[in-house]
Each structure stands twice: as C-alpha cells, then as structure tokens.
Design goal:
Length: 414
C-alpha cells in the first residue's frame, strides 16, 4: 500500500508545491475533442439562484457546454473516476451544472447534484474562519504563541497562530507518522481524539524554525481547533455551526460527531486500504481529520461558501486582508494564506480524504465560482483527479486563469 500520509498530506496543494503537477490529456487549444469509445452520461441540472439572491444564471452557450462535456468525459475516462459533479457559475458567461458517471459502482446509480459529500481539507477554511472571528472580537491575536493556549507543543513559545493557519509552523504532520498510519489501516472506522492526533506528531522533532518556510501539516489545524474550544468554552463543532454555518446561510453543511453521513450521498472509493486494493470508504470515521478535514457539505452550500470565503463576508476587512496575504507554495502564481489558497487568481481550497475529493474556488476578477465533487481519491499518475478536472474546466472557461497554472497538453489521439 502507498503510505496513507501521502494522500492525506496532499489534501491541499502540497502536490503542486512538490512539482508533481501532471497535465491531463483533455484540453488543448481546441478545448478537447469529443470522447470516443465508452459513453459517459452528462446529466444537466437546471440553473439555480445565485448565493446572494440574484436572478438565475443562463446556461453556457451550447458550444462551450459541449467542449466542457467532452473534456470532463475524457478526464473521467482516463482517470477511472467513478463519478463527478461539476458546477460553474460565471456572470456574463453563464452556468454549467452537470453530473457524470456513477455514484455507486455496484448498482450503477448516477451521480446527483444534491448529494452530500465529505469535503476533507476544505474543512480548514471553516476552522480558520472561526479562529479569525475570535481575532476580530479581540479574544486572541494572530501573533500570539500557541503555547499561550496549549501546553506541550514543541516550539510552542515561538510558533504563532498566524504560522499555524498559514502552514509555516514546522510541526510534524501527524498523518505521516507510522503509528498513525498503522492504527488507521487497522480500523478506518476507529475514532480518534485531537489529543491522540497531537501525540503522533509530537513524538517527532520540529521540521524547521517557525516561519522559515511553507509546509502543509494537518497538525496545525488540530491545534487551532483546540484554541477555539479553549477560548469559547464550547465544542469546535458547535462554534463552527453557530458562528460560521448559520450566519453564512449554509443549511446543508455539518460537522459530524462520528461517522454519520446524511443521505443522499455517493459511495466513496479509495485505495488507501491495508491491502492497497480499492475499497468502499463511505462510512469510515473522519474524526482522524477533525478540525483539518471532517466537515460534510453539498454543491449549493459550497457554491455559496466559495464567495463568502473569498470576499470575507464574515470577517472585518482588515482581518480578511491578513488572511489573503499568501506565501509561495513553490510554483508561479500559487500561494497559501491563512487556511486558504490563491492559485492563478482562484481563491479557496480543495479537499481529499479516503473516498472523496472536492475543489471549491472563487475568481474575484470574473466573480466566477467553480465546485468539483468526486467520489474517489484514487490518484492518476501521481496527481489528484480533482486538479485534473479543475484544469480541464478552467482551460476552457477562464483561459487567462487556468487552475493550477501550468499549460495543458494537447489531447492524446483517440
């Protein structure tokens, strides 16, 4: 089996930072050719109101929609992804909402637009938002050391909350620990506590001095979740629900207390099993990810959240400005802020955990939103499939802002 930590660490954009971006054969200058061979159904959904209540978007022109259909089908076929739901809303260009492939490989049931999904590391955007609200309330400071709130943290007197949120702490990522990997593989339905997760991390030396460089670590978010709980005196789940989800109007997003997964949802498939074979991970307990990756949502809530997150609706302008200050992650045009990234102008986050991947981003320049939801996290040639779908879509609709930023290759001959 490939070590579990490799995938879990890359729940954000660490793949890009490591220079592992692999171009899909989907969308050259001709935007991709029609798929050949096996037909993958594209099920359109009706346009819906915008998150801020504006009138409905018209659909993209048939020609552009056809190019998107072809490109997405090709990625689906080449990567072996069972199913994907794609949503794109761009004022002045139109909307595109499609379901491709299957939600259940055993029954052949199709993907649906209203499915709930485990969003993995997109959870970080909610946790850090709750933290930044405490900054706005004057209850904490971004440059406070973590040791002020949580004892026993290596370098705790030097690592700041800002460095934790910005992935510049130097703390070892607990999902890379062999003990964690063995425990996870032995029983993926086993619950973990935040203290157990930190225990896996703190047995390792710090990786670098605080602020020295950027390195993705889920350990950072576990600590921030504990800070939120200590300052508020309430469970993190409750704080996020009351202070973030409710004011943002997200009625189909929840922080689970266990392995619960509201219907309807797709079955999720992963190769992060003890045998290395692809298995069904739908009911695995996400508590191992907690503040770093446990939240569940759906397409419409994520569509709304993309804009709220990027524009800072729930924060003061000054705090949002601090959030959007980015550190390079190793490729041109890509940086990470405080629980958020900016890649070629697309602001948001992606997520990956066993069985599911998501990508939720907003392009302020065009006021465009993109949400991509998959029911697998199985990589294709070392790359996250959500990235390949994002590239295929943006190469067509926003060619000046291609996510994640490298030039796509020409389509392979069929």
């Amino acid at each position: 089996m490939r070590p579990t930590y490799i995938r879990l660490r890359r729940a954000c954009v660490a793949t890009a930072a490591a220079g592992l971006l692999i171009a899909p054969a989907v969308a050259g200058s001709a935007y991709g050719a029609p798929a050949q061979g096996r037909s993958v159904p594209a099920v359109p959904a009706a346009p819906s109101p915008t998150p801020d209540g504006d009138t409905e978007f018209p659909q993209l022109t048939p020609a552009v929609a056809a190019r998107l259909d072809a490109a997405i089908r090709r990625v689906l076929r080449e990567t072996g992804v069972p199913g994907v739901t794609v949503g794109l809303w761009a004022p002045g260009k139109g909307s595109y909402v499609r379901n491709f492939g299957v939600a259940n490989k055993a029954t052949g049931a199709p993907m649906q637009t209203d499915f709930q999904i485990r969003i993995g590391s997109e959870t970080k955007t909610f946790t850090v938002t709750a933290l930044l609200q405490l900054v706005d309330q004057g209850k904490i400071g971004l440059d406070d050391p973590i040791g002020k709130y949580i004892s026993g943290v290596p370098n705790g007197d030097r690592i700041t909350l800002r460095q934790l949120a910005g992935m510049r702490s130097g703390l070892f990522n607990y999902t890379e620990d062999e003990g964690f990997i063995k425990a996870f593989e032995a029983d993926p339905k086993k619950p973990f506590t935040p203290q157990q997760l930190l225990g896996y991390s703190f047995t390792h030396p710090v990786q670098f001095a605080p602020g020295e460089k950027w390195e993705y670590s889920n350990t950072n978010l576990i600590l921030l979740g504990l800070v939120i709980e200590k300052i508020t005196g309430r469970p993190l789940r409750e704080v996020i629900e009351r202070n973030v989800l409710e004011p943002a109007g997200l009625r189909h997003t929840l922080f689970p207390v266990g392995a619960e997964f509201p219907a309807p949802h797709a079955q999720g498939y992963t190769d992060q099993s003890a045998s290395g074979r692809i298995v069904n991970a739908t009911d695995w307990d996400p508590s191992w990810a907690w503040a770093a990756g446990a939240i569940i949502s759906d397409q419409q809530d994520l569509r709304s959240w993309a804009r709220t997150l990027a524009t800072g609706t729930l924060l003061t302008p000054a705090t949002q400005a601090e959030r959007l200050k980015t550190t390079s992650i190793g490729i041109p045009g890509a940086g990470y802020g405080l629980g958020i990234f900016n890649i070629q102008g697309w602001i948001g986050h992606n997520g990956s955990l066993p069985g599911y991947e998501t990508l939720t981003v907003y392009l302020p320049e065009d006021r465009a939103t993109m949400v991509v939801l998959l029911n697998t996290d199985v990589e294709y040639r070392g790359q996250e499939p959500s990235t390949l779908f994002g590239e295929a879509i943006t190469s067509i609709v926003t060619p000046d802002h291609v996510y994640p930023g490298h030039k796509p290759t020409a389509p392979k001959p069929s």
